[in-house]
Amino acid sequence: MPTAPIDDNGSFLRYADSGPPAKVYEHPYTTVVLIHGVCYNNGIFDRVLPFGSAQNLRIVTVNLRDYTGSTALSALDLERLNSEDPRERLLFLHDRVQELARFLLWFIETESIPPPCSEAHTRGSVNGGITLVGWSAGNHLTMCLLAYGADILPQKQKNILQKYLKSYVMFESPYHMAGLPTQKLGDQYFCAIDDPALDKNQFLDVLPTWVSSFYTHSRIVLDALSGISHGATISAPVQSLTDEEFLQGLAIIPDDPDVHTPTTLSIPPEVIESTEGIARSDVPLMLLGRDIYHDVFERAFFTGYSSTLNGQENGFHDIRAKDGWLPQVRVEVVTCGRSIPICLWHAWKLYHALRETDVDHSAHSGSGNATNANGTHSTQRKVRFHLWREFNHFPHWEEPFQFVQSLAKLI
């Protein structure tokens, strides 16, 4: 499997590449870069690679630091990650953003991938360019690029990324990535890592089965997430649904494994990282701190943007860029209806975080803020929600063909 340099010290990331589509299409292909979560390396996306070509997609899957085949984290990296000083932990995230940027820039130059075509950046008319997909806890990295890239990347790098990046798919993000507080229903925690009764080793023992099981959530929850999805008309019951009612409808206990087998049981061992590796960096990353992840969330969606909402138009929530950092990048939030409860809760809370803000276009003073004919600004961030009702947390492994088809519709 090939590798890509990510710094001047010889560090590299392993990646897989489907290559350009075999068929020559009328429009340039889009490059989709998939970022894995914890426990499973980029081999978790191997099943989707053969299906990109038919959708005019080039699929690239990246193996992060400390995962097999990529450069291990350094002693300094681990010191920063485990530091009690939040400034040191933030530097750890900054370093990972720089590495992701270096990978993207290297791939753009080395593979001469097509930039977005010249049509206006409107939904459904832009081919070419790059779509970033963060899966599960991998969203910490993709969100950090939106949150901190403007501050820490050289201008030349920012110019290139601004030219190529067109969308970000926030795929099955857990609530930790938004800095939301720990949730439980009665004595049951929504996420095993939050349970103080489990030590690190016990958590790692239950993680693969817990995260890859199927869950039967109530119709109230699924109808609510359907109601906020693209193309839906938000009904009065959805508008009036409280957080408590939503939480009560989430399933904490997975389906009977004899009825719905946890996905991890069909995944080969070389795709699942060792518990030692997960304990070394993944667990500290998940426990990095609510305040830090909330800051990432605020910066990615609000700070540097007017912290307001302009209602919904074509299913999008509009948040306007202040300083012009990736203003063209739209966000597609994808949640699966049979997934772990922490992902459904994240989508619900993210929707309300956007809904409860109040856009004031007159307050916008950033660059590139030309007013369009419809009264909106050209630097608006677009955020849209989607429910893939029948999938668990692993549609890319369980149903790779359907996954790529569904993904292609978003980008």
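That was protein one. Protein two is written in the same sequence-then-structure order:
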Amino acid sequence: MTNTKPKPNQRATSLYSPKLSIYLIATCVTLFILFQIKSLQTPTQPPCTLLHPITTNQAPPSPLSLSAAEKLRQSVTFLPLKDLRYSSTAQQGHTWFMSSTYDTHVPGEVQYQKFPSHASRGKILCLRGNDTHDGAWNSYAFAYTESLPINTTLVKGLTFVSNNHYNYDNIWHGLSATVPFVGWHLRDGGCAVPSRWILYHWGEVRTKMSLWLRSLMEATFDGPIEIERWDLNGEGGYCFEEAVVMRHNEGGMSRERRMEVYDLMRCKARVHCKVRTNEERGLGGRIGLTLFMRSGPRSFRNETAVIEIFERECVKVGGCRLTVAHSNNLTFCEQVKLMSSTDILVSPHGAQLTNMFLMDRNSSVMEFFPKGWLKLAGVGQYVYHWIASWSGMNHRGAWRDPTGDPCPYPEDDRWCMSVYKSGKIGHNETYFAEWARSVLNEVKLRKIDEQATTKGTTDSSTSSACSCS
């Protein structure tokens, strides 16, 4: 066997190469890195998603609906309760209180706003602020119950919201502001009773009313009343499930409607104070003559002389009984009882005359003024003529003292009213005696006629006059 030797220039063939190994390793590393990057970019699918799709009975929230509700919430705008643009016509039209709104008004009925209602497009009333000095710092807004403004609290029940151009401490001005709520309660409100009251004066928060007025409202609505005290902080506020707003006092109400309201309040007050009728007390034929005196401003200069004049005339009429009282010494129920037995009310001009509606219908009022009022006091001097008419009483005129404290200005100068406003009232013995005699005789004839025509009837304080329907 012959051994063949390789030629000097020929090399042996081999699969191993260091360069090839390096190339292969680099390629593998690159592919591994690319695969890892791809797997990070691709969402991981849950196992068996295609074979067993996940189902649910509750649809996920719609981003569109959430956005709409939030947009409604964000779009609620609070406006100043007192709009200074209308300060020159503060009590006219839509007034400067909640000036962006208009009242619901049927001729002869109260002017009011109800929330929610068709007029408010289903929106409720929201209020913010507790400023007691400037109503422009308090504000109001309207919102849907489902989209209340941020940081507000929904308050349940019926809320009465009153704006009074005067105040709630004076019983006449306070009564003027609350009468329309009684009218709404009696007619449009279906006898609804408020859970709370919110009081404003020119848009400024008020947290109390006179004790007399509060007692009357508690009697009328058959229970204690709550006046909101506004414990608000920061940007918070309240939204009310139901609210009735009054800002025109009794303006717009017909005489007949006002008489219904005063009848209801009279009856409710008598029941509340447990007043017995004259018939129950055996005084059916008597005539009650009451001198309702004042102390201080607009009091009689010689009270004793005035009492003696009316006392002399009273004793001349059979069944006449004279009572002298001071309004500041009597509780609410004592005033109700006094008025229920009064047929003729003799009193100086002043808030105490507001009690006249607590007398029986057709009772008489005699009013007295200090010097200067006729020329300078304006229409406000006739308020007790008005309430006499609205409550079914007979205003028998007024006596105006021709003498009084001197004014340093001409007597028709408006600055003289500051002198005359709180002046004392004198007396004219001859005029007072003739006037008292005339009124007493008229009342006596009326009482005789009433006894003949109403014999056997039931007193209004225990009849349907006290019911709301």
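The two ends are 141 Å apart (CA to CA). Keep this in mind for the problem set.
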